[in-house]
Predict the structure.
Amino acid sequence: MLGGQVGIAGHVDIGRGVVAVGQSGITNSQPAGAFVSGYPAIDNKEWRKASALFRRLPELKRRLVELERRVVELEELASARGRRTR
């Protein structure tokens, strides 16, 4: 069963009972009974988890950059302390 606007690449096998939600893009063969979403089509449960995070990506990127900066500072501090104790 294919929802509206589902695209399927050529030369892929679609197993019996596959469900693809609307606007999915099937680029790889799908086993029987698969329930897929997104582009490229992945397991629906995984797609729902990922799509819930999409709107938070800018915030998560800012936090990651800040954490990386803090790690560098801590490594430099630890290195400087190590040099002083020798």
